[in-house]
Amino acid sequence: MTSESRRRGRKDRLNQTTEPDSRKPVWPGVPGGRLKPLKPDEIALVEETALMLLETLGLSQAIPSMIEKVCSAGGELTEDGRLLFPRSLVRTTIDGARRGFTLCGQRPEHDLLIEDARVHMSTGGAAPGVFDLDTGAYRDSTLADLYDAARIVDRMDNIHHFSRSVVARDVEGSAAMDINTAYACLMGTSKHVSISITEPQNVTAIADLCYRIAGGEAAFRARPFLTVMVCHVVPPMRFAEEACEVLEAAILAGFPVQLISAGQAGATSPATIAGSLVQAVAETLAGLVFARLVDPEVRAIFAPKPLVADLRTGSMCGGGGEQAILMAGAAQMGRHFDLPTSSIAGITDSKCLDAQYGAEKSLAVAMAAHAGSNLVTQAAGMQASLLGVSHAAYVSDNDLLGNILRTIRGIEATPENVAADVITGVCRGEGHYLGDPHTFSRMKSDYFYPVVGDRRPPREWQADGARPVGDVARDRAKDILASHFPSHIPDAVDQDLRARFDIRLSRQQIGRD
Question: For residue 121, what are the CA distances in angstroms to 130, 218, 344, 366, 381?
C-alpha cells in the first residue's frame, strides 16, 4: 500500500466517527469477518489459481487503452488477443489498492467508512419489474418506482446505501435512461447511491449532474456521493469492451467504482462452487489492475459476485445454500486481500413475503455479512431471482437486516458485560432482573426491536386483525410514499438540473409543486 493511499485512508477515517453509538443496538459498519468457510489452504489455492489464470490465460477483448497500460506495466498481449497479467503486477495492485475510504452521503450523517470488515447493507438489482403496492401483481417498473424505492430506503435505518434497484422501462434511449436513473436515485435519498452507466459517452452528463448537485467538480471529487457499478467482464474471462470504456471514463471523472464479475455457475463459470469463485476472483482482480493503472488512488471496490444456476433448467436460482456459501467465500477472499469488498446476497427466488422469502434472504445475507463483506447488495427489496422489487419488502427487510446486524455485533464478552456484580447483587436482593437498573440501562443499547415484526401474543394479534407482516409493511411503505419527499437537494439546484438535462420526473412527483 502506498504512503499516499495510507494518508488518504487516515484522512477519510478522521472525517467519520468510527465508534458505534452506545445508545443503539446496531449501526452502519458493524465489524464482521468471523465466518471463514474457506480453510487457509483453500484460500491459498484459490489465490494461486486465480493468479495463474491471469498470468497464463488472461482475458480477451481488452480495449486499446487497457492493452497499452497493462503492457507498459509488464503485461503481454498474445497472438490470439488475450491480455496476460503477470502475478507481480497483480500483487502490486492488491498491495497498493486504496483502503479505508468513505462512500459519502449527500449529507455527512450517511457517510460509510469502507474499512477492514465493517459491514453495510444495500439495495441493488436492476430488476425489470415491481410487485405493485396496491394490487400485488407483477408489472413493468417505471422511473417513479425507482424514485419511490429511494424514498423508502431514505427512511430505513438498517439499509445504509441505495443501489439502483429497478430499470425505468418507461424511459427510452440510453442517455435519457442513465441521466434520469441518477437523478431519481439522488433526489430520492441523501444516502450514498450506486448506479450503472450504459455507454461511455453518458458519463460526462452524469458527472455534470453530480458536480452541480455538489456545488462544483472539486466539491464532488472531495466527497463523491455516487458510485459507478461496472460489470467489466463478460464471463468467462472476457472483457466487456464498452463497460471498460465506461470504467475508465468514470474513474477519470472522479467516481468511486465497483468492479463486478457476475458469471453464472454451470453456464458462464464452472459448475463447482470453488471453480466459480476462482474465475470471479481472477476477473475482478483484472478489473482492479486496470482501474489502478487509470488512477492509482481510485476508490475501487472488489466485487466478485458469481451467481448460481439451477442446473436442471439453467435458470438463475439465488436463494439456495450454494449461492449463500459462494458469497461468503467471495467475501472471505476480499478480507484475505484486505480489499474494500462488495458481495451480492438476498436474491430470494420467492415472489412474495412468505416463508421461502425470509429463509433464503436471511441465510444469504447473514453469511455474506458474517464473512465481512463491506457492502452487501441486493440485501433488501429484491424478489423473484432479481426480476422484481417489492417496495413493501424494503420495510420488512429493514427489520430483518437489523436482526442480522445484531448477530454480527456478537456477544461482546467483557468484564463489564459478563455482569458478575449484577448477578451477585440480584441473587442477594430481589432475585430477578426485571427492575434492576442494569436491565434498564442496557435494554436499548443491547437489544434490537423490530418495527413491523409482530411479537404480541396470538390473541392480541388476532384481535387486531391477524395481519401478516407483508400487509403491515405495505401500509408502512404507502405512508412513507404519501408523506416523505426528501428536500436535501435545494429547489434552485433542482430547477438548474431541469434546465440543463432531460428530467422526466415532474416537479409534482417529487413534491415540489
Answer: 21, 28, 10, 11, 12
pTM metric for this prediction? 0.95
Long-range contact pairs involving 1-9 (C-beta distance under 8 Å, separation at least 24): 1/95, 1/96, 1/97, 1/99, 2/96, 2/296, 4/296, 4/297, 5/96, 5/97, 5/98, 5/99, 5/296, 5/297, 8/98, 8/100, 8/101, 8/297, 9/98, 9/99, 9/100, 9/101, 9/115
* Structure-block grid coordinates of residue 505: 420526473
Domain 1-111+119-125+133-406+448-513: top CATH class: alpha beta
Backbone phi, then psi, for 496, in 5-degree steps?
A: -65, -40
Digitized pLDDT (tens) for each residue of the chain, 513 residues in all = 454 544 455 455 544 444 566 679 999 999 999 999 999 999 999 999 999 999 999 999 999 999 999 999 999 999 999 999 999 999 999 999 999 999 999 999 999 999 999 999 999 989 999 999 999 999 999 999 999 999 999 999 999 999 999 999 999 999 999 999 999 999 999 999 999 999 999 999 999 999 999 999 999 999 999 999 999 999 999 999 999 999 999 999 999 999 999 999 989 999 999 999 999 999 999 999 999 999 999 999 999 999 998 888 877 788 899 999 999 999 999 999 999 999 999 999 999 999 999 999 999 999 999 999 999 999 999 999 999 999 999 999 999 999 999 999 999 999 999 999 999 999 999 999 998 999 999 999 999 999 999 999 999 999 999 999 999 999 999 999 999 999 999 999 999 999 999 999 999 999 998
Annotated domain spans of the chain: 1-111+119-125+133-406+448-513
What grid cell was written down for 428?
442477594
Q: What is the DSSP string of 282-311?
A: HHHHHHHHHHHHH-TT--EEEEE--EEB-T
